[in-house]
């Protein structure tokens, strides 16, 4: 046994296509009882961070990285954040036993894992424990057909969680399992609803193996990263302090689901609705949409609506006009 190796801080890379259930799993990691302190790094694609507002309140260290994809433009930020974590820990300001990184749904996990091999300090202090890929069992098939990122996330996984099993039939699930096993026979497979899994199956499992990753991507340890996002996929965010009219929002969302659902990969937000003391959270993935009152606004919090749309061929002017139309009189 290599004792030095064992002292390294384990890192779990949480990946999965847009809306698969990564934040749901992260919340589970943060709320379930285990004796470990977790430092969390959340990366979002859009310029407005919604996930950080949906991550449960906890004492853990939660660091946000917005406005770019962790595997591309903000990889330098990831290195800086991890280095700062190490220094803060060594000076006794923070304590943590492991790191969990939630990547954007559009991230290729390989360069994120690569970061821990290319930077001297990080490779000395951290060890990638595993890449955990969450799958939306209902939508993944259509994503796999057109989005390279969805394929890379599966190919590179050590553990694959087939989530949202409540939304598919047994036959559909069996076909999906066949396809995924073909893509990555070595990964451990778990099945879940709302990411209810045994955390011991994904944390501290030491399954990340560089030699296997090199078989999948022989350039894994090379500096240059070639990930190109699909130019047609973009993200649009809106912020508005004036309260919104619930009925108008309802109508708008119904229209979007019907008319644009196919192109809307992910839409989510927090709404400030006229006459409601609680903030309203909405979540959408293609034609599946839900909106519900969440907690009351806190006193020190400015009431504000924040929405993010990620999709193909989004028309910003049109969406903005429709959004502004929802502002209450
Ligand atoms: N029906 C169903 N819904 C689920 C399940 N797991 C998560 N969801 C819902 O799916 C939506 C997306 O879940 P998130 O955890 O935000 O997904 P994510 O991967 O973090 O999404 P992005 O970070 O935006 O890519 C939310 O509305 C969840 O409540 C499940 O097993 N079944």
TrEMBL record:
The keyword Hydrolase belongs to this UniProt entry's keyword annotation: yes
Span of the signal peptide: none
UniProt domain CobW C-terminal: residue ranges: 233-327
Domain of life: Bacteria
Pfam families named in the record: cobW, CobW_C
TM spans (from-to): none
InterPro entries given in the database record: CobW-likC_sf (IPR036627), CobW-like_C (IPR011629), CobW/HypB/UreG_nucleotide-bd (IPR003495), P-loop_NTPase (IPR027417), Zinc-reg_GTPase_activator (IPR051316)
Protein name as it appears in the record: G3E family GTPase
Organism: Cytobacillus oceanisediminis
Taxonomic placement: Bacteria, Bacillati, Bacillota, Bacilli, Bacillales
